[in-house]
Amino acid sequence: MKLRSFTYAVLVVGCAFAIFPYFLTVLTAFKGPGQLSETLPWEPGLPPSVAAFDRLFGSGFGGYLVNTALVTAGITLGQVVFAILAAYAFARLPFPGRDVLFWVYLSTLMVPPVVTMIPLYLMMQKLGLVDTWAGLMLPTMLGTPYAIFLLRQFFRSIPVELEDAARIDGAGRVRTLVSIVLPLSRPILVTVTTLAVVANWNSFLWPLIITSSEDKRLLSVGIALFKSEIGVDYNAVMAGSLIALVPLLVLFIVFQRFIVRSVAVTGLK
């Protein structure tokens, strides 16, 4: 009983530390300009003010929001489609050097993304894609090692006999993938899609490097660069962070059971 009470106490403390920054974000977003200096960070501003949101959308924040939604949708779609094709090839199609190629590709997860930023930028510069939508999206649109790994592990857990039966009935590889494998892979597809949405929605360094014009600015870059005449407008920054957080929070709440289930299955298999 004492051990259980101690465990719950530790979990509650850990949960409080994890939630506290988000709590401060909400409080700061609804404070007026004067309330930020007149109150402690964990004290609410009374009465609550939406002035920060008005200043935020008056500065072009709505455009950043639309840009981010479109770019996230495009990159996520590309990542999921190409990851499915690559993972199925690594899981089911026999070809020379398949496993070696897979593990070599997977080893790129050990390379920090910042290491590849300069080579990627030089490539985009040579192709004339700096400050373009194509330059922004192409480097991450063709699949990621982690997504391919998760999908491959899940595909390998599906009984081969189901695919053999489909081929006996006359289905080809593509038909088998679309009609047999993908419907059985709904949990891992939801997980991969959710992870891709979160990563692309929060992407900061590459959009900051590859784009310079305001009409191609994304949410994370716009929030970081948001300033007023007297310096950084922390109320507006927190309001923007809150708006950026809400879609991801809703996404996780809606699909959390699929995420937990798919991670458990891939881990066990």
TrEMBL record:
<feature type="domain" description="ABC transmembrane type-1">
    <location>
        <begin position="65"/>
        <end position="255"/>
    </location>
</feature>
<feature type="transmembrane region" description="Helical">
    <location>
        <begin position="102"/>
        <end position="124"/>
    </location>
</feature>
<keyword id="KW-1133">Transmembrane helix</keyword>
<keyword id="KW-0812">Transmembrane</keyword>
<keyword id="KW-0813">Transport</keyword>
<keyword id="KW-1003">Cell membrane</keyword>
<dbReference type="GO" id="GO:0005886">
    <property type="term" value="C:plasma membrane"/>
</dbReference>
<dbReference type="InterPro" id="IPR035906">
    <property type="entry name" value="MetI-like_sf"/>
</dbReference>
<feature type="transmembrane region" description="Helical">
    <location>
        <begin position="234"/>
        <end position="255"/>
    </location>
</feature>
<feature type="transmembrane region" description="Helical">
    <location>
        <begin position="64"/>
        <end position="90"/>
    </location>
</feature>
<feature type="transmembrane region" description="Helical">
    <location>
        <begin position="7"/>
        <end position="30"/>
    </location>
</feature>
<dbReference type="Pfam" id="PF00528">
    <property type="entry name" value="BPD_transp_1"/>
</dbReference>
<protein>
    <submittedName>
        <fullName>Carbohydrate ABC transporter membrane protein 2 (CUT1 family)</fullName>
    </submittedName>
</protein>
<dbReference type="InterPro" id="IPR000515">
    <property type="entry name" value="MetI-like"/>
</dbReference>
<keyword id="KW-0472">Membrane</keyword>
<feature type="transmembrane region" description="Helical">
    <location>
        <begin position="176"/>
        <end position="199"/>
    </location>
</feature>
<feature type="transmembrane region" description="Helical">
    <location>
        <begin position="136"/>
        <end position="155"/>
    </location>
</feature>
<comment type="similarity">
    <text>Belongs to the binding-protein-dependent transport system permease family.</text>
</comment>
<dbReference type="GO" id="GO:0055085">
    <property type="term" value="P:transmembrane transport"/>
</dbReference>
